[in-house]
Design brief:
By secondary structure, the protein is of the alpha/beta class. About 25% of the residues lie in helices and about 25% in strands. The strands form two sheets. The chain has a six-stranded mixed beta sheet.
Length: about 240
């Protein structure tokens, strides 16, 4: 199976600072649903930035769909959901306008076409937000806002969906709903999903692999095989 993401012997430090990541080897096949977790300061955010080509490794190589991540050309193949603190959830825009912005990124000039509007409708429907399409984003709950931004990412029909700390600021019920939504989207679309967070309870029962990062990869496998001491104490399932 082809690889969506590959780290080969990657080390990373910020400038002359201490090493943040060391000896990272990681391969994510196309179509996998993977959670990348670890404590704050453990290197998971740096790993994400390397994966997206936003940083250059000090040593080793990072590949996106077989190309160097730093020079990966088809950026529309990546749907990126940033942390909620960075995405302007108070912007005076409707849900539909937010999702249309995701599709407009495919067209550098000109108005959206019929196929673009169809993609927007499909994305809204997939996340269960079609009935709220005309609502201002600022009037929605944290969980609904997350769904709107997932729809924005899906509107471009990406091959890789990356979520950075997606449960920040949403309650436990919304976290569970998010996990179920991602599992359904993974099954329906076959999209590769990277779920990056300091905790993984929302998706523990859905992900195929859990990768724990503490400067290096300390665990990579099914969540069921994770030693008990590592299980997230902040989130439990019935």
């Amino acid at each position: 199976m082809s690889l969506a993401l590959q780290f080969k012997g990657v080390d990373f430090s910020y400038g002359q600072g201490p090493r943040v990541l060391g000896g990272v080897d990681l391969a994510v096949s196309e179509g996998e649903f993977v959670a990348i977790a670890g404590p704050n300061g453990g290197g998971k955010t740096t790993l994400l930035r390397l994966a997206l080509g936003l940083e250059r490794p000090s040593r080793g190589e990072v590949l996106l769909f077989g190309e160097p991540a730093r020079s990966f050309g088809n950026r529309t193949a990546i749907g990126y959901l940033a942390q909620r603190t960075r995405i302007g959830v108070h912007a005076p825009a409707t849900v539909r306008e937010v999702v249309e912005a995701g599709r407009a990124a495919l067209r550098l000039v000109g108005r959206l076409r019929r196929e673009d509007h169809e993609a927007v409708e499909e994305a809204l429907e997939r996340v269960g937000m079609l009935h709220l399409a005309r609502r201002p984003l600022s009037e929605l709950s944290g969980g609904q806002q997350q769904r709107a931004f997932i729809a924005k990412a899906l509107a471009a029909r990406p091959a890789l969906l990356v979520l950075d700390e997606p449960t920040t600021g949403v309650d436990v019920e919304a976290q569970d709903a998010l996990g179920g939504l991602l599992n359904r989207l993974h099954g329906e679309l076959g999209v590769t999903i990277l779920y990056v967070s300091h905790e993984f309870g929302a998706v523990e029962q859905f992900v195929e692999r859990l990768v724990l990062v503490r400067e290096r990869i300390v665990f990579d496998g099914p969540p069921s095989q994770l030693p008990g001491v590592w299980h997230d104490p902040s989130h439990t399932h019935a």
